[in-house]
Amino acid sequence: MKLKKKIAVLLASALVVSSVVGCSSTGGSSSSDGVVLNVNVGPEPETIDPAKNTAVDGATLINHAFEGLMKLDKDGKVVEGQAKEVKVSEDKKVYTFTLRDDAKWSDGEPVKADDFVYSWQRLVNPETASDYNYMIDMVVNAKDIMEKKKDPKELGIKAVDEKTVEVTLETATPYFLEVCAFPSTFPVRKDIVDKDAESWSTKEDTYIGNGPYVLKTWEHQSKMVYEKNKNYYDVDKLGPDTINFVLMEDKNTMLSAFKNEEILFADDLPSEEIAAMKDKGLYVEEQLGTYFLCLNVEKEGLKDVRVRKALALALDRDFIVDKVAQGGQIPADGFVGIGLTDADAKTKFHDNAEAWYDVKDYKGNIEKAKALLKEAGYENGKGLPTIELMCNPGHEPIMEAVQNMWKENLGVNAKISSQDWNVFIDTRNKGDYQVARHGWLADYNDPISFIDMWVTDGGNNDAQWSNAEYDKLVSEVKSSTDQKERYAKMHEAEKILGEEMPIIPLYYYTDLYLKSDKLEGMYTSPLGYKYFMNAKITE
Protein backbone atom coordinates (compact mmCIF):
# COMPACT_ATOMS: atom_id res chain seq x y z
CA MET A 1 0.00 0.00 0.00
CA LYS A 2 1.24 3.46 -0.85
CA LEU A 3 2.80 5.12 2.15
CA LYS A 4 1.69 8.71 2.32
CA LYS A 5 4.02 10.75 4.48
CA LYS A 6 2.05 13.71 5.69
CA ILE A 7 4.17 16.78 5.27
CA ALA A 8 4.15 20.50 4.53
CA VAL A 9 1.44 22.08 2.48
CA LEU A 10 1.98 25.79 3.05
CA LEU A 11 -1.31 26.55 4.71
CA ALA A 12 -1.72 29.51 6.98
CA SER A 13 -0.65 28.17 10.36
CA ALA A 14 -3.22 30.16 12.26
CA LEU A 15 -6.05 28.70 10.18
CA VAL A 16 -4.91 25.14 10.74
CA VAL A 17 -4.36 25.56 14.47
CA SER A 18 -7.75 27.20 14.74
CA SER A 19 -9.37 24.14 13.18
CA VAL A 20 -7.54 21.89 15.62
CA VAL A 21 -8.67 23.85 18.63
CA GLY A 22 -12.17 23.69 17.21
CA CYS A 23 -12.16 19.96 17.98
CA SER A 24 -11.31 20.40 21.63
CA SER A 25 -9.01 22.51 23.72
CA THR A 26 -7.17 19.30 24.59
CA GLY A 27 -6.42 16.16 22.62
CA GLY A 28 -8.88 14.20 24.69
CA SER A 29 -11.74 15.06 26.96
CA SER A 30 -14.83 13.80 28.71
CA SER A 31 -18.09 15.72 28.69
CA SER A 32 -21.83 15.23 28.32
CA ASP A 33 -20.96 13.99 24.82
CA GLY A 34 -18.75 11.25 26.26
CA VAL A 35 -15.04 10.65 25.67
CA VAL A 36 -13.63 12.63 22.73
CA LEU A 37 -10.24 11.78 21.22
CA ASN A 38 -8.36 14.07 18.80
CA VAL A 39 -5.75 12.44 16.56
CA ASN A 40 -3.97 13.08 13.28
CA VAL A 41 -3.23 10.29 10.78
CA GLY A 42 -2.94 12.45 7.66
CA PRO A 43 -4.32 15.31 5.59
CA GLU A 44 -7.51 15.39 3.52
CA PRO A 45 -7.77 11.83 2.13
CA GLU A 46 -7.74 11.29 -1.61
CA THR A 47 -10.61 8.80 -1.17
CA ILE A 48 -12.20 6.65 1.52
CA ASP A 49 -13.96 4.33 -0.90
CA PRO A 50 -12.64 0.88 0.13
CA ALA A 51 -12.28 -0.26 -3.49
CA LYS A 52 -10.43 2.87 -4.62
CA ASN A 53 -8.20 3.82 -1.70
CA THR A 54 -4.49 3.08 -2.02
CA ALA A 55 -3.06 5.16 0.86
CA VAL A 56 -2.23 4.03 4.39
CA ASP A 57 -3.98 6.94 6.11
CA GLY A 58 -7.06 6.29 3.99
CA ALA A 59 -6.97 2.67 5.11
CA THR A 60 -6.90 3.76 8.76
CA LEU A 61 -10.02 5.85 8.21
CA ILE A 62 -11.72 2.98 6.37
CA ASN A 63 -10.79 0.48 9.10
CA HIS A 64 -12.76 2.56 11.60
CA ALA A 65 -15.89 2.73 9.43
CA PHE A 66 -15.93 -0.70 7.78
CA GLU A 67 -15.03 -4.29 8.56
CA GLY A 68 -14.25 -7.27 6.36
CA LEU A 69 -14.94 -10.95 6.72
CA MET A 70 -11.74 -11.03 8.76
CA LYS A 71 -9.80 -8.37 10.67
CA LEU A 72 -6.40 -7.83 12.29
CA ASP A 73 -6.21 -7.87 16.09
CA LYS A 74 -3.78 -5.90 18.26
CA ASP A 75 -1.13 -8.60 17.78
CA GLY A 76 -1.42 -8.47 14.01
CA LYS A 77 -3.18 -11.82 13.83
CA VAL A 78 -6.04 -12.44 11.43
CA VAL A 79 -9.25 -13.13 13.36
CA GLU A 80 -12.94 -13.29 12.54
CA GLY A 81 -14.56 -9.95 11.70
CA GLN A 82 -18.02 -9.94 10.14
CA ALA A 83 -17.67 -13.70 9.84
CA LYS A 84 -18.25 -15.71 12.99
CA GLU A 85 -16.97 -18.92 11.44
CA VAL A 86 -14.75 -19.97 8.53
CA LYS A 87 -14.60 -23.42 6.99
CA VAL A 88 -11.95 -24.41 4.45
CA SER A 89 -12.21 -27.33 2.04
CA GLU A 90 -9.67 -30.11 2.09
CA ASP A 91 -7.98 -28.82 -1.05
CA LYS A 92 -7.96 -25.30 0.47
CA LYS A 93 -9.68 -23.80 -2.53
CA VAL A 94 -13.17 -23.25 -1.12
CA TYR A 95 -13.77 -20.94 1.84
CA THR A 96 -17.18 -20.80 3.48
CA PHE A 97 -17.84 -17.82 5.75
CA THR A 98 -20.81 -17.71 8.10
CA LEU A 99 -21.71 -14.12 8.96
CA ARG A 100 -22.54 -12.96 12.46
CA ASP A 101 -26.26 -12.87 13.23
CA ASP A 102 -25.79 -9.39 14.71
CA ALA A 103 -23.70 -7.94 11.86
CA LYS A 104 -25.40 -4.69 10.85
CA TRP A 105 -24.78 -1.57 8.82
CA SER A 106 -24.61 1.73 10.63
CA ASP A 107 -28.19 2.53 9.56
CA GLY A 108 -29.45 -0.67 11.18
CA GLU A 109 -29.83 -2.77 8.04
CA PRO A 110 -28.48 -6.33 8.36
CA VAL A 111 -25.19 -7.19 6.65
CA LYS A 112 -25.91 -9.89 4.10
CA ALA A 113 -23.84 -12.31 2.08
CA ASP A 114 -24.93 -10.48 -1.07
CA ASP A 115 -23.16 -7.35 0.22
CA PHE A 116 -19.82 -9.15 -0.04
CA VAL A 117 -20.69 -10.67 -3.40
CA TYR A 118 -21.54 -7.24 -4.79
CA SER A 119 -18.46 -5.57 -3.30
CA TRP A 120 -16.01 -8.18 -4.57
CA GLN A 121 -17.58 -8.10 -8.03
CA ARG A 122 -17.29 -4.31 -7.94
CA LEU A 123 -13.62 -4.54 -6.96
CA VAL A 124 -12.66 -6.55 -10.07
CA ASN A 125 -15.07 -4.79 -12.42
CA PRO A 126 -12.94 -2.77 -14.89
CA GLU A 127 -15.47 0.06 -14.66
CA THR A 128 -14.49 0.60 -11.01
CA ALA A 129 -10.87 1.14 -12.07
CA SER A 130 -9.53 -0.07 -8.74
CA ASP A 131 -5.74 -0.11 -8.44
CA TYR A 132 -6.18 -2.95 -5.97
CA ASN A 133 -8.36 -5.25 -8.09
CA TYR A 134 -5.52 -7.76 -8.19
CA MET A 135 -5.82 -8.30 -4.44
CA ILE A 136 -8.40 -11.01 -5.16
CA ASP A 137 -6.94 -12.31 -8.41
CA MET A 138 -6.72 -15.77 -6.84
CA VAL A 139 -10.53 -16.00 -6.89
CA VAL A 140 -12.01 -18.03 -9.77
CA ASN A 141 -12.46 -15.91 -12.94
CA ALA A 142 -11.06 -12.73 -11.36
CA LYS A 143 -8.26 -12.32 -13.90
CA ASP A 144 -10.58 -12.86 -16.88
CA ILE A 145 -13.01 -10.31 -15.47
CA MET A 146 -10.26 -7.74 -15.01
CA GLU A 147 -9.22 -8.37 -18.62
CA LYS A 148 -12.85 -7.90 -19.76
CA LYS A 149 -13.10 -11.51 -20.91
CA LYS A 150 -15.87 -12.39 -18.46
CA ASP A 151 -18.70 -10.67 -16.64
CA PRO A 152 -18.15 -9.62 -12.99
CA LYS A 153 -21.08 -11.84 -12.02
CA GLU A 154 -18.94 -14.85 -12.95
CA LEU A 155 -16.51 -14.16 -10.08
CA GLY A 156 -16.01 -17.18 -7.81
CA ILE A 157 -17.99 -15.79 -4.90
CA LYS A 158 -21.63 -16.52 -4.09
CA ALA A 159 -24.24 -16.10 -1.40
CA VAL A 160 -25.33 -19.58 -0.32
CA ASP A 161 -27.98 -17.87 1.80
CA GLU A 162 -28.31 -14.48 3.53
CA LYS A 163 -25.63 -15.30 6.08
CA THR A 164 -23.26 -17.58 4.14
CA VAL A 165 -20.55 -16.46 1.72
CA GLU A 166 -18.68 -19.03 -0.36
CA VAL A 167 -15.47 -18.12 -2.17
CA THR A 168 -13.73 -20.46 -4.61
CA LEU A 169 -10.08 -19.96 -5.49
CA GLU A 170 -8.19 -20.92 -8.62
CA THR A 171 -5.30 -22.09 -6.47
CA ALA A 172 -4.84 -22.63 -2.75
CA THR A 173 -3.50 -19.32 -1.41
CA PRO A 174 -1.73 -19.35 1.98
CA TYR A 175 -2.43 -15.67 2.69
CA PHE A 176 -6.06 -15.61 1.54
CA LEU A 177 -7.52 -14.89 4.98
CA GLU A 178 -5.18 -11.91 5.27
CA VAL A 179 -6.64 -10.66 1.99
CA CYS A 180 -10.09 -10.94 3.59
CA ALA A 181 -8.90 -8.47 6.25
CA PHE A 182 -7.64 -5.96 3.65
CA PRO A 183 -9.70 -2.75 3.20
CA SER A 184 -10.29 -3.25 -0.54
CA THR A 185 -12.33 -6.38 0.25
CA PHE A 186 -14.62 -4.65 2.76
CA PRO A 187 -18.34 -4.64 1.89
CA VAL A 188 -20.22 -1.61 0.62
CA ARG A 189 -23.95 -1.25 0.04
CA LYS A 190 -25.22 -1.75 -3.51
CA ASP A 191 -28.30 0.42 -3.02
CA ILE A 192 -26.13 3.34 -1.89
CA VAL A 193 -23.21 3.02 -4.31
CA ASP A 194 -25.34 2.46 -7.40
CA LYS A 195 -27.27 5.67 -6.75
CA ASP A 196 -24.12 7.81 -6.67
CA ALA A 197 -21.07 5.78 -7.69
CA GLU A 198 -18.71 8.75 -7.94
CA SER A 199 -19.40 10.64 -4.71
CA TRP A 200 -21.22 8.35 -2.23
CA SER A 201 -18.03 8.11 -0.14
CA THR A 202 -17.63 11.89 0.13
CA LYS A 203 -20.88 12.60 2.00
CA GLU A 204 -21.72 11.70 5.57
CA ASP A 205 -25.32 10.72 4.86
CA THR A 206 -24.33 8.11 2.27
CA TYR A 207 -21.11 6.89 3.88
CA ILE A 208 -22.84 3.92 5.50
CA GLY A 209 -20.41 1.40 6.96
CA ASN A 210 -20.47 -1.80 8.98
CA GLY A 211 -17.49 -1.04 11.21
CA PRO A 212 -17.07 0.17 14.79
CA TYR A 213 -17.48 3.87 14.02
CA VAL A 214 -19.56 6.00 11.67
CA LEU A 215 -18.58 9.23 9.93
CA LYS A 216 -20.87 11.93 11.35
CA THR A 217 -19.37 15.14 9.96
CA TRP A 218 -16.62 15.94 7.47
CA GLU A 219 -15.24 19.45 7.45
CA HIS A 220 -13.03 19.15 4.40
CA GLN A 221 -9.39 20.15 4.90
CA SER A 222 -10.13 20.43 8.65
CA LYS A 223 -11.47 17.33 10.43
CA MET A 224 -13.52 14.15 10.14
CA VAL A 225 -15.69 13.33 13.13
CA TYR A 226 -16.34 9.64 13.80
CA GLU A 227 -18.81 8.46 16.44
CA LYS A 228 -19.52 5.00 17.82
CA ASN A 229 -21.67 2.88 15.55
CA LYS A 230 -24.53 1.92 17.89
CA ASN A 231 -25.33 -1.00 15.58
CA TYR A 232 -21.83 -2.52 15.72
CA TYR A 233 -21.85 -5.98 17.31
CA ASP A 234 -19.04 -5.09 19.71
CA VAL A 235 -20.12 -1.52 20.48
CA ASP A 236 -19.92 -2.11 24.24
CA LYS A 237 -16.20 -2.83 23.95
CA LEU A 238 -15.34 0.34 22.02
CA GLY A 239 -13.31 3.14 23.58
CA PRO A 240 -13.86 6.81 22.67
CA ASP A 241 -17.40 7.94 22.00
CA THR A 242 -16.02 10.32 19.39
CA ILE A 243 -12.79 10.30 17.40
CA ASN A 244 -11.84 13.54 15.68
CA PHE A 245 -9.45 12.78 12.84
CA VAL A 246 -7.82 16.19 12.49
CA LEU A 247 -6.62 16.73 8.92
CA MET A 248 -3.10 18.17 8.76
CA GLU A 249 -0.32 17.96 6.20
CA ASP A 250 2.31 20.23 7.68
CA LYS A 251 4.72 18.44 10.03
CA ASN A 252 5.42 21.48 12.13
CA THR A 253 1.71 22.05 12.65
CA MET A 254 1.34 18.43 13.77
CA LEU A 255 4.18 18.80 16.25
CA SER A 256 2.80 22.06 17.63
CA ALA A 257 -0.68 20.55 18.04
CA PHE A 258 0.81 17.53 19.82
CA LYS A 259 2.94 19.61 22.17
CA ASN A 260 -0.09 21.75 23.04
CA GLU A 261 -2.16 18.57 23.65
CA GLU A 262 -4.64 19.60 20.98
CA ILE A 263 -4.11 16.09 19.59
CA LEU A 264 -2.90 13.02 21.49
CA PHE A 265 -1.49 11.30 18.41
CA ALA A 266 0.43 12.57 15.38
CA ASP A 267 1.51 10.24 12.59
CA ASP A 268 4.60 12.23 11.65
CA LEU A 269 6.99 14.94 12.77
CA PRO A 270 9.82 17.04 11.27
CA SER A 271 13.00 15.00 10.89
CA GLU A 272 15.03 17.75 12.59
CA GLU A 273 12.85 17.32 15.71
CA ILE A 274 13.30 13.55 16.05
CA ALA A 275 16.19 13.74 18.51
CA ALA A 276 14.43 16.37 20.62
CA MET A 277 11.24 14.30 20.88
CA LYS A 278 12.88 11.13 22.12
CA ASP A 279 11.41 10.30 25.53
CA LYS A 280 8.76 12.96 24.86
CA GLY A 281 6.21 10.84 23.05
CA LEU A 282 8.21 9.61 20.05
CA TYR A 283 7.72 5.98 19.06
CA VAL A 284 9.75 4.16 16.41
CA GLU A 285 8.46 0.79 15.23
CA GLU A 286 9.36 -1.70 12.54
CA GLN A 287 7.39 -1.41 9.34
CA LEU A 288 7.10 -3.76 6.36
CA GLY A 289 7.89 -1.21 3.71
CA THR A 290 10.40 0.40 1.37
CA TYR A 291 11.03 4.01 0.33
CA PHE A 292 12.23 4.28 -3.25
CA LEU A 293 12.42 6.31 -6.44
CA CYS A 294 10.17 5.25 -9.29
CA LEU A 295 11.62 5.73 -12.77
CA ASN A 296 9.39 6.21 -15.79
CA VAL A 297 11.17 3.86 -18.19
CA GLU A 298 9.37 5.37 -21.18
CA LYS A 299 11.15 8.72 -20.81
CA GLU A 300 14.27 9.70 -22.77
CA GLY A 301 17.46 8.55 -21.11
CA LEU A 302 15.61 6.46 -18.55
CA LYS A 303 14.77 3.92 -21.25
CA ASP A 304 18.38 2.75 -20.99
CA VAL A 305 18.90 0.29 -18.13
CA ARG A 306 22.53 1.40 -17.86
CA VAL A 307 21.39 4.92 -17.01
CA ARG A 308 18.93 3.61 -14.44
CA LYS A 309 21.62 1.47 -12.80
CA ALA A 310 24.08 4.36 -12.79
CA LEU A 311 21.56 6.59 -11.04
CA ALA A 312 20.93 3.87 -8.44
CA LEU A 313 24.62 3.26 -7.76
CA ALA A 314 25.49 6.94 -7.32
CA LEU A 315 23.54 7.36 -4.07
CA ASP A 316 24.92 7.29 -0.53
CA ARG A 317 22.08 5.61 1.35
CA ASP A 318 23.89 5.75 4.69
CA PHE A 319 24.03 9.54 4.43
CA ILE A 320 20.36 9.75 3.44
CA VAL A 321 19.34 7.63 6.43
CA ASP A 322 21.69 9.12 9.03
CA LYS A 323 21.69 12.78 8.04
CA VAL A 324 18.41 13.40 6.22
CA ALA A 325 15.68 10.94 7.18
CA GLN A 326 17.07 10.42 10.72
CA GLY A 327 14.36 8.00 11.80
CA GLY A 328 16.26 4.77 12.32
CA GLN A 329 15.60 3.63 8.76
CA ILE A 330 17.78 0.94 7.19
CA PRO A 331 19.59 1.51 3.85
CA ALA A 332 17.89 -0.62 1.19
CA ASP A 333 19.74 -2.99 -1.14
CA GLY A 334 16.59 -4.50 -2.69
CA PHE A 335 12.87 -3.90 -2.93
CA VAL A 336 11.05 -6.45 -0.75
CA GLY A 337 10.80 -5.06 2.75
CA ILE A 338 12.74 -6.60 5.60
CA GLY A 339 10.76 -8.49 8.22
CA LEU A 340 9.00 -10.90 5.85
CA THR A 341 9.98 -14.53 6.33
CA ASP A 342 11.15 -16.96 3.66
CA ALA A 343 9.72 -20.37 2.73
CA ASP A 344 11.06 -21.99 5.91
CA ALA A 345 9.08 -19.46 8.02
CA LYS A 346 12.26 -18.90 10.05
CA THR A 347 14.85 -17.00 8.01
CA LYS A 348 14.14 -13.60 6.48
CA PHE A 349 13.34 -13.30 2.79
CA HIS A 350 15.68 -10.30 2.59
CA ASP A 351 18.59 -12.22 4.12
CA ASN A 352 18.29 -14.89 1.43
CA ALA A 353 17.91 -12.42 -1.43
CA GLU A 354 20.68 -11.31 -3.76
CA ALA A 355 21.61 -7.71 -3.01
CA TRP A 356 21.21 -5.31 -5.93
CA TYR A 357 24.35 -3.44 -4.86
CA ASP A 358 26.65 -3.15 -1.84
CA VAL A 359 25.33 -0.23 0.22
CA LYS A 360 28.62 -0.09 2.13
CA ASP A 361 30.82 0.28 -0.95
CA TYR A 362 29.80 3.81 -1.90
CA LYS A 363 33.11 4.67 -3.62
CA GLY A 364 33.10 1.45 -5.61
CA ASN A 365 29.49 2.02 -6.60
CA ILE A 366 30.32 5.48 -7.94
CA GLU A 367 33.04 4.07 -10.18
CA LYS A 368 30.62 1.47 -11.54
CA ALA A 369 28.03 4.18 -12.07
CA LYS A 370 30.45 6.37 -14.03
CA ALA A 371 31.42 3.45 -16.25
CA LEU A 372 27.77 2.57 -16.96
CA LEU A 373 26.89 6.18 -17.81
CA LYS A 374 29.88 6.42 -20.16
CA GLU A 375 28.90 3.15 -21.81
CA ALA A 376 25.37 4.54 -22.34
CA GLY A 377 26.85 7.58 -24.14
CA TYR A 378 26.39 10.10 -21.33
CA GLU A 379 29.91 10.45 -19.91
CA ASN A 380 29.91 12.96 -17.04
CA GLY A 381 26.21 13.47 -17.65
CA LYS A 382 26.73 15.16 -21.03
CA GLY A 383 23.79 14.76 -23.38
CA LEU A 384 21.45 13.39 -20.71
CA PRO A 385 18.38 15.61 -20.36
CA THR A 386 17.81 17.29 -17.00
CA ILE A 387 15.84 14.90 -14.80
CA GLU A 388 12.78 16.13 -12.95
CA LEU A 389 12.57 14.70 -9.44
CA MET A 390 8.93 14.78 -8.39
CA CYS A 391 7.75 14.49 -4.80
CA ASN A 392 5.00 15.60 -2.47
CA PRO A 393 5.73 18.36 0.09
CA GLY A 394 8.14 17.46 2.87
CA HIS A 395 10.24 15.04 0.84
CA GLU A 396 12.31 17.84 -0.66
CA PRO A 397 15.31 17.24 1.67
CA ILE A 398 15.69 13.68 0.41
CA MET A 399 15.23 14.78 -3.19
CA GLU A 400 17.87 17.49 -2.65
CA ALA A 401 20.33 14.87 -1.37
CA VAL A 402 19.65 12.72 -4.45
CA GLN A 403 19.99 15.77 -6.71
CA ASN A 404 23.36 16.70 -5.19
CA MET A 405 24.75 13.15 -5.36
CA TRP A 406 23.79 12.75 -9.02
CA LYS A 407 25.41 16.07 -9.88
CA GLU A 408 28.56 15.55 -7.82
CA ASN A 409 29.14 11.91 -8.75
CA LEU A 410 27.87 11.73 -12.32
CA GLY A 411 27.48 15.28 -13.59
CA VAL A 412 23.76 14.61 -14.03
CA ASN A 413 21.46 17.60 -13.64
CA ALA A 414 18.16 17.28 -11.82
CA LYS A 415 15.45 19.68 -10.77
CA ILE A 416 12.89 19.16 -8.01
CA SER A 417 9.15 19.49 -8.49
CA SER A 418 6.95 19.35 -5.37
CA GLN A 419 3.21 18.78 -5.74
CA ASP A 420 0.41 18.51 -3.19
CA TRP A 421 -0.43 14.90 -2.37
CA ASN A 422 -3.57 14.40 -4.46
CA VAL A 423 -2.04 16.11 -7.51
CA PHE A 424 1.21 14.19 -7.00
CA ILE A 425 -0.54 10.82 -6.90
CA ASP A 426 -2.61 11.59 -9.98
CA THR A 427 0.45 12.76 -11.93
CA ARG A 428 2.46 9.69 -10.98
CA ASN A 429 -0.39 7.30 -11.78
CA LYS A 430 -0.78 8.84 -15.23
CA GLY A 431 2.94 8.50 -15.94
CA ASP A 432 3.40 12.26 -16.44
CA TYR A 433 6.79 12.34 -14.71
CA GLN A 434 10.43 11.23 -15.06
CA VAL A 435 11.49 10.21 -11.54
CA ALA A 436 9.10 10.27 -8.58
CA ARG A 437 9.48 9.44 -4.94
CA HIS A 438 7.46 6.40 -3.88
CA GLY A 439 6.83 4.23 -0.85
CA TRP A 440 5.27 0.83 -0.47
CA LEU A 441 4.05 -1.12 2.57
CA ALA A 442 3.13 -4.79 2.55
CA ASP A 443 -0.58 -5.49 2.21
CA TYR A 444 -0.18 -8.85 3.92
CA ASN A 445 2.65 -11.00 5.26
CA ASP A 446 3.90 -12.47 1.99
CA PRO A 447 6.62 -11.12 -0.37
CA ILE A 448 4.23 -11.33 -3.32
CA SER A 449 2.63 -8.19 -1.86
CA PHE A 450 5.74 -6.38 -3.14
CA ILE A 451 6.52 -8.52 -6.17
CA ASP A 452 3.13 -8.43 -7.92
CA MET A 453 3.18 -4.63 -7.93
CA TRP A 454 5.34 -4.55 -11.08
CA VAL A 455 3.48 -6.86 -13.48
CA THR A 456 2.77 -5.41 -16.90
CA ASP A 457 -0.08 -2.89 -16.77
CA GLY A 458 -0.54 -3.49 -13.04
CA GLY A 459 -2.68 -0.87 -11.28
CA ASN A 460 0.26 0.27 -9.13
CA ASN A 461 3.00 -0.12 -11.76
CA ASP A 462 3.74 3.59 -12.07
CA ALA A 463 7.13 2.86 -13.69
CA GLN A 464 5.36 1.75 -16.91
CA TRP A 465 7.84 -1.16 -16.84
CA SER A 466 7.18 -4.49 -18.53
CA ASN A 467 9.09 -7.77 -18.51
CA ALA A 468 7.58 -11.00 -19.87
CA GLU A 469 9.74 -13.28 -17.75
CA TYR A 470 8.85 -11.33 -14.63
CA ASP A 471 5.14 -11.58 -15.45
CA LYS A 472 5.52 -15.31 -16.00
CA LEU A 473 7.21 -15.80 -12.62
CA VAL A 474 4.52 -13.82 -10.78
CA SER A 475 1.82 -15.87 -12.48
CA GLU A 476 3.57 -19.09 -11.49
CA VAL A 477 3.97 -17.91 -7.90
CA LYS A 478 0.26 -17.22 -7.68
CA SER A 479 -0.70 -20.57 -9.15
CA SER A 480 1.65 -22.70 -7.07
CA THR A 481 0.87 -24.40 -3.78
CA ASP A 482 4.49 -25.46 -3.22
CA GLN A 483 5.98 -22.94 -0.79
CA LYS A 484 9.59 -23.68 -1.74
CA GLU A 485 8.76 -23.19 -5.39
CA ARG A 486 6.78 -19.99 -4.69
CA TYR A 487 9.57 -18.38 -2.70
CA ALA A 488 12.29 -19.45 -5.13
CA LYS A 489 10.39 -17.81 -7.98
CA MET A 490 9.82 -14.66 -5.92
CA HIS A 491 13.56 -14.43 -5.37
CA GLU A 492 14.05 -14.82 -9.13
CA ALA A 493 11.53 -12.08 -9.79
CA GLU A 494 13.15 -9.65 -7.37
CA LYS A 495 16.50 -10.37 -9.01
CA ILE A 496 15.06 -9.43 -12.42
CA LEU A 497 13.68 -6.23 -10.91
CA GLY A 498 17.18 -5.40 -9.68
CA GLU A 499 18.74 -6.17 -13.04
CA GLU A 500 16.24 -3.93 -14.85
CA MET A 501 16.13 -1.23 -12.13
CA PRO A 502 12.81 0.51 -12.89
CA ILE A 503 12.96 1.60 -9.26
CA ILE A 504 15.75 2.77 -6.97
CA PRO A 505 15.33 1.62 -3.35
CA LEU A 506 16.64 4.10 -0.78
CA TYR A 507 15.71 2.69 2.62
CA TYR A 508 13.47 0.31 4.53
CA TYR A 509 10.83 2.13 6.51
CA THR A 510 10.39 2.58 10.20
CA ASP A 511 7.12 3.93 11.55
CA LEU A 512 7.62 7.16 13.51
CA TYR A 513 4.74 8.71 15.40
CA LEU A 514 3.97 10.81 18.47
CA LYS A 515 1.70 9.40 21.17
CA SER A 516 0.75 11.04 24.43
CA ASP A 517 1.15 9.10 27.67
CA LYS A 518 -2.53 9.90 28.24
CA LEU A 519 -3.50 7.72 25.28
CA GLU A 520 -3.68 4.02 26.04
CA GLY A 521 -5.05 1.01 24.20
CA MET A 522 -4.45 2.23 20.66
CA TYR A 523 -2.31 -0.04 18.52
CA THR A 524 -0.51 -0.08 15.19
CA SER A 525 0.12 -2.63 12.48
CA PRO A 526 3.39 -3.29 10.61
CA LEU A 527 1.25 -2.60 7.53
CA GLY A 528 1.02 1.02 8.71
CA TYR A 529 -2.55 1.12 10.02
CA LYS A 530 -3.48 2.86 13.27
CA TYR A 531 -6.34 1.62 15.47
CA PHE A 532 -8.10 3.85 18.00
CA MET A 533 -11.36 1.93 18.50
CA ASN A 534 -10.21 0.45 21.82
CA ALA A 535 -8.27 3.48 23.04
CA LYS A 536 -8.61 5.02 26.49
CA ILE A 537 -7.67 8.45 27.77
CA THR A 538 -6.11 8.79 31.20
CA GLU A 539 -5.17 11.86 33.18
Can you offer a commentary on this structure?
The chain is an alpha+beta fold and 539 residues long. Helix content is 27%, strand content 22%. It has 16 helices and 22 strands. Strands 1, 2, 9, 10, 11, 12, 13, 14, 15, 16, 17 and 18 form a 12-stranded mixed beta sheet that branches. The chain has a 4-stranded antiparallel beta sheet with strand order 5-6-8-7, with helices on one face. A two-stranded antiparallel ribbon has the order 3-4. It is globular. The two termini are 36 Å apart. Residues 4-25 have low confidence and may be disordered.
Terminus-to-terminus distance: 36 Å
Number of helices: 16
Largest sheet: 12 strands, mixed
How would you describe the shape? globular
**Residue share in β-strands:** 15-25%
Radius of gyration: 23 Å
The helix content is 25-40%
Mean pLDDT level: 93
The low-confidence runs, each spanning 5 or more residues with pLDDT under 50, are: 4-25
Strands, total number: 22
Q: Helices and strands: which structural class?
A: alpha+beta
